[in-house]
Amino acid sequence: MKFEIMRHRLLDGLNVVMKAVSSKTTIPILTGIKLEVTEKGLSLTGSDSDVTIQTFIKSEEDGEQVIRVIEEGSIVLQARMLNEIVRKLPTSDVEMEVKENNQTYIKSGKSEFHIIGIDPTEYPLLPEIQDDSLLIIGSDLLKSVVRETVFAVSTSESRPVLTGVHWQVKDGELICVATDSHRLARRKLILENPPEDEFNVVIPGKSLNELSKIIGDSSQPVYIVITSQQVLFKTKDVLFYSRLLEGNYPDTSRLIPTEYKTIITMNSKALFQAIDRASLLAREERNNIVRFSSMEGNQVEVSSSSPEIGNVEEEIKISTMEGEEIKLSFSAKYMMDALKAFDGQDIVIQLTGAMRPFIINAVQDNTLLQLIVPVRTY
Amino acid sequence: MKFEIMRHRLLDGLNVVMKAVSSKTTIPILTGIKLEVTEKGLSLTGSDSDVTIQTFIKSEEDGEQVIRVIEEGSIVLQARMLNEIVRKLPTSDVEMEVKENNQTYIKSGKSEFHIIGIDPTEYPLLPEIQDDSLLIIGSDLLKSVVRETVFAVSTSESRPVLTGVHWQVKDGELICVATDSHRLARRKLILENPPEDEFNVVIPGKSLNELSKIIGDSSQPVYIVITSQQVLFKTKDVLFYSRLLEGNYPDTSRLIPTEYKTIITMNSKALFQAIDRASLLAREERNNIVRFSSMEGNQVEVSSSSPEIGNVEEEIKISTMEGEEIKLSFSAKYMMDALKAFDGQDIVIQLTGAMRPFIINAVQDNTLLQLIVPVRTY
After folding, report:
1. What is the spatial distance between Cα A339 and Cα A350, in angstroms, rounded to a whole number?
2. ipTM score of the complex?
3. How many domains does chain B fold into?
4. Do A241 and A263 sit in the same domain of this protein?
5. What ranges make up the beta strands (E) of A147-198?
6. Nearest to residue B12, comparing CAs of B219, B209, B242, B238?
7. Where is each DNA polymerase III beta sliding clamp central domain found (chains A, B) (predicted)?
8. Using a CB-CB distance cutoff of 8 angstroms, which residues of chain B are in contact with residue A316?
9. Hey, is the C-beta of A225 within 8 angstroms of any chain B C-beta?
10. What is the per-residue pLDDT across A15-63, written as a single tens digit (0 to 9) for each?
11. In a shared domain, residues B106 and B154
12. Which of A91, A106, A110 to mutate against chain B (most B CBs within 10 Å)?
C-alpha cells in the first residue's frame, strides 16, 4: 500500500469512522482503523462490533485529485494515534506506505513516522447485507425522527429490548417508539417510497445517537436496509451498520389512553423554561419532581419546593383549557425531554387526573406523541 | 435588604465571585455568596478561605440606573443555586428581598422564588489590609507574568512552598520564579513605580491561575498590596485576596548555569510543533521523553521512539548554532510548556551537554528565562 492524500480529507474521514471506535473494546484490533486503498480511492473502517462505520474517499472528486494511488493495499492502524498524527502533521499533504511486517511509514513535510501496524486480514469483515428492500428518508428528517424518540429509551439493562427504539414499517408508515416504562415517545412518518416488506426491529439507542452525529442536516437521502440482525444506513459517503436488539418489543399501543378529562393548549417553550427554573429547587431531591396545576384565568402554575432550600412558583398563560381542573406532579427531566422534542411549537396536553398517564401532541400535527406517567404527591 | 437590579449585571458579578467558591469546602457558609446592598450599590463576596473575591456593582453607572435600592442589608445565599436561578430568570430585571429568618424572595416576571438564606453575620470577614505600599502593573502585563511562570510550580505537596510562585521586589524590579525542581521559569519586570519597601513572598499557583481568569486583557492598572500573610490584587471592580505560602523559598539563582558549550537560535513555534508531534509516540511511555540532536547543515532533529508503537523523526531548520554538537533528551511536556511562554518568538537555547540543565531566552529580550533539566537516555 502506498498513496498520497490531501491531509484535511483524510482527517475528515478519520473523524467520521472514529465515532465507532471505542477505547473500551475487548477485541484489540477494534482499537484500530482499517485503511484500504484501490485505484478508486481510500476506504476507512472503524467498529466497536455493535456499530461499524465505513467511509470512502474518492481518488478524484470534482476534477480535483484527492488521492494519488501508487500501490493498492490495506493496513490497520491504532485509531486515536493515527487521528492525532494526521491532525498535527505540518503540511497539507500526507504520504503513507506500508513496508514489511505491517510497518507503516507516514510522511508530511520533514516529519516522518514509522508506526507498527496490524495485519488487515485479521480485521472483522463487514456484515453482508443485500439491499433489495429499502427505506429512503431525507437526512434532516431522519435526524428529527431520532431526536424526537431516542431520549426516551431505557438506560437500565434489566430489560435490554427497552434500550432500543422500536422501528415498525407497516401500511406505508414508519412508526418509531421508545419507552423506559415511565414515559414514551412515538413518531409516525408516512413513507414516500414504502418498501414492499413489513419490518419490525429494535435499533439500539446508542447506535441511533451515533448515527445522528454523522449524518448531515441536508435533505440528502439516507438509504436504510434492514435485515434480521443488522440495519445499514447508507449516505453518499458513509455506510453505518448497527446490530439490532433481540427480543420482542412490548405492545405499547394499549398504554396510550384514548379518552381524556382535561385538554390544555399552550406554548411548549414557555412551559419548558418554567419547568427548567422550578427544577432548580427540585434538583437535590430524588427524581426532581415539579407540580403542575390549572388556575383561574387561563393560567397554569408550575411549582416546586424543597424543605431545605425553599420554594418556587410561576404562572404561565395558556391558550385554552377544556374539561376538569387538574393538579399533578411529574419528573421535571422527563417533561423537559418531551417538550424539547416539540422545538418551541404550540402543544396540546391531554390529561386524565393526577395518577393517569398524560400525552402531548403538537397543535398542528399529530405525528409526534409524548407520554408521561405522573408521580404521586398530591 | 430589598433592591431591584439589571439581571445581566448581577449575573456578571456572580460569575466573577463564583470563581472563588469551591463545592469541596469544609466550611458550609463558604458554599454561599454574600450579598450586601447599600445606597451606593451591591457588593458580592465569594471565598474558599485561600482565595476571596469581592466585586462591587454601582447603583448608577454612566448615568444609567443599574440598581434601585429600597432597603439596605445583606444575606448569604447558596452560590451555585443563586447563579443558576439568576441565569434562568425570564426577564431582564430581578427583584430581591430578605424577609424574616433570612428567607429571601427573588422575583422576575411571573417567576417567584423563596430561598432559605444564611445569616450574613456568620460570613468570615475580609482580611484587613493597609495599602500604604503598592505595586502597580497593567492587567495584560500581569497576565503575561503569571502565564509565563505559573505552569512551572510543583503539583506535589511534599514541599508546599514550591506549589507557589516566588515574587521578589528588589531594586525597582519584580522577579517571579517558579520551579518544581525539574524545570524553572523566571520572569523579571522593571517596575515603573517601584514601592519603597522590598518584598519577598510566595503566592499559591492556584490563586494566580484564578486571578488570570478574572482580570481582563486591558492595560488597566492592577494595584497589588502585599502583607506578611495576604496579597490583594485590586482592579476597578474587583478585590482579589489570596493567602501567601509559608516557608522560605529556595535560592534558585545558583541552579542557573552561567557558561554554556552550545548556543542554538531558532523559532519557538517550529520547535513546539515538532515536539508536539514527536510526543504522540512518546505519550504512552513514562515521562513522555523526546530526543533533540544537532545535525549538519543548520538543522536539529527531534525524535522519539516506543518499541510497541514505532518511531518518529523530524528535522527543523535553525537560524544559527555555535559551539559543540549536542544530543540530549527531555520531557516533551516540560519543553512544550516552556516554549509556549515565548508565544512564537525566536529563541536562544543555551546548553552544556546531555546531563546539565539548559536555558531558553527570547532572542530580543532577556526578561524571561526557562530552564529545563534533561533526562538521561543517551
Report:
1. 14
2. 0.88
3. 3
4. no
5. 164-170, 173-179, 183-190
6. B238
7. 138-251
8. 110
9. no
10. 999 999 998 888 999 999 999 999 999 999 999 999 999 999 999 999 9
11. no
12. A110
